TrEMBL record:
Phylogenetic lineage: Bacteria, Pseudomonadati, Pseudomonadota, Gammaproteobacteria, Methylococcales
Protein species of origin: Methylomonas fluvii
Short name of any one Pfam family annotated for the protein: PAS_9
Start and end residues of each PAS domain: 66-132
This protein's UniProt keywords: Coiled coil
InterPro entries listed in its UniProt record: PAS, PAS-like_dom_sf
Name of protein: PAS domain-containing protein
Parts forming coiled coils: 40-67
Domain of life: Bacteria
Length: 194
């Protein structure tokens, strides 16, 4: 729908609401017409000012959204969002780069498919508890990328529903888990050297 057709539709809807009879219109005095005309001009200016403010706010929201999107994808930590079953709903570019994949390819992939075979059972057995109450919990697993190179990762999560634990009335299926993944290869290498 174009802006002109949208304006025409709004005008048509407004005309249906007004519903003045010809007798009512002919009984309006010239002074009342001048006052109405003045009021309409003031109202039009108010609407233009409100529109300008809305456009400024929309621009600022767009700018902040772009900045947040850039930050999300460029932080030096992998970030994914998991559903209650462990499927990836969203992944940042850092996590995808860690594994040698494109972020879009990771969507709808079960997280366990990215875990080194010997560590999958650890994830599967601990996922429910981790998902239900992620605060102060972490997992240390080896992840396996596109080139089958495994790397150790520290995995931490936060509930995306505004709570850290699920109450009895909370629907876990609606919860999302935002997970950070940090490659800890350097930490382990340094610990082995010491």
């Amino acid at each position: 729908m174009t802006l002109d057709s949208h304006a025409a539709k709004l005008k048509e809807m407004a005309e249906k609401i007004i519903d003045f009879t010809p007798q009512e219109i002919s009984s309006i005095t010239p002074e009342e017409i001048q006052r109405l005309f003045y009021d309409l001009q003031v109202y039009q200016i108010e609407l233009q000012m409100q529109n300008e403010e809305l456009q400024k706010a929309q621009f600022e929201l767009s700018r902040l959204n772009n900045k947040l999107n850039f930050t999300y994808h460029c932080v030096p930590v992998g970030i994914i969002t998991l559903d209650y079953q462990g499927f990836i709903e969203q992944a940042n570019h850092t996590f995808a780069d860690m594994l040698g994949y494109k972020a879009s390819k990771l969507q709808k992939t079960h997280f366990s498919k990215l875990i080194f075979e010997e560590d999958k059972n650890t994830f599967i057995h601990r996922f429910d508890a981790f998902f239900k109450a992620p605060t102060n919990k972490s997992l240390q697993l080896r992840l396996q990328g596109d080139k089958n190179l495994a790397f150790p990762a520290l995995i931490k999560g936060n509930a995306d529903d505004g709570s850290d634990t699920a109450g009895e009335s909370f629907d876990l299926k609606a919860r999302k888990l935002v997970v950070t993944i940090t490659n800890i290869s350097d930490v382990i290498t340094d610990a082995n050297k010491a």
